[in-house]
Amino acid sequence: MEWTQVDVLTTSEAVEAIANILTEQGASGIQIDDSQDIQNYQKADETVVIDWDEIKYQQTGAKVIGYFPQDVFVTEALPVIENKIKQLAEFGLAYAPGTVKVKALADDHWATAWKKYYRPVRLTRHLTIVPAWDDYQKVQTQEQLIVLDPGMAFGTGTHPTTRLMIEALTIIVRGSETMLDVGTGSGVLSIAAKHLGVKQITATDIDQVAVDKAKENLALNPIAQDVTVKVSDLLADVEQTNVDLIVANILAEVIVPLIPQAWAKLRPGGHFLTSGIIADKLDLIIEQQTKQGFIVDQQLKIGDWCGLIAHKPAVNESNQFTAQG
């Protein structure tokens, strides 16, 4: 089968937004080459397992690459993609240069591209992301594997925003929680949460195509077989209430309308974990969360990306911002 490769040159700040644009227009897989990757992995100390001398990587800015199957009419989609990229400026995202290039790609080249750029990555002491094709062997008995096929959905779970969310989950999860995973994408956060001890999870994404892709990844991980995935615009179509935990790794502009929905779904004392927040949007999200009534407990940061740990006050608990860097 022939594939079409669409390359977008952009900034590290805009990679998630552009990846979502390409996915919405029919990309079956997304590859991100980000010049910040080395910096982010080096900060992980002993968790680094990528040999950067073996692969080429983006020296400045970032490149988001979308792979489109032959049944997608890319010529028709290109003007939409270019227009949506330009609209990112309205959300305060610097995307320049935002140039788009297209080329044909044979099926065997597609497979080679994925296997060249993705390797097992140790995210925490106990969680390692492993590409589905890799015959990875555990280094330690307590190591837990998150198996992903990067061709199925946006990202491989190693982007700083995902790492921030997994760090937040590691801090908050105590076991047996109920959780809502908003904009689940590859399903990586649901899989990680199950490894950490979360009991019941409902994950959502914006359309059926995205949900089906998440289900494929969840099926690769036996521990996540019982995760429910459904189509929902944020939490609008989710019936559960009084849940212990809500996680969302999405753009700051999308977090804003999610805040009142999360408030309504959480139990008193429940936690709201958010990531995908570029540094200059952090104050906005803190303001909106505290305005709703959330108490922001902690800020997390990798490079220009931020995450927040907040909670809905328990009965008789005052709302006072106590964030710690």
TrEMBL record:
It is an enzyme of class 2 (transferase). Its EC number is 2.1.1.-. S-adenosyl-L-methionine binds at T162, G183, D205, N249. This is Ribosomal protein L11 methyltransferase. Methylates ribosomal protein L11. Belongs to the methyltransferase superfamily. PrmA family. It comes from Periweissella beninensis. It catalyses: L-lysyl-[protein] + 3 S-adenosyl-L-methionine = N(6),N(6),N(6)-trimethyl-L-lysyl-[protein] + 3 S-adenosyl-L-homocysteine + 3 H(+). GO terms for molecular function: methyltransferase activity. PANTHER family: ELECTRON TRANSFER FLAVOPROTEIN BETA SUBUNIT LYSINE METHYLTRANSFERASE. Keywords: Cytoplasm, Methyltransferase, Ribonucleoprotein, Ribosomal protein, S-adenosyl-L-methionine, Transferase. SUPFAM superfamilies: S-adenosyl-L-methionine-dependent methyltransferases. It is found in: Cytoplasm.
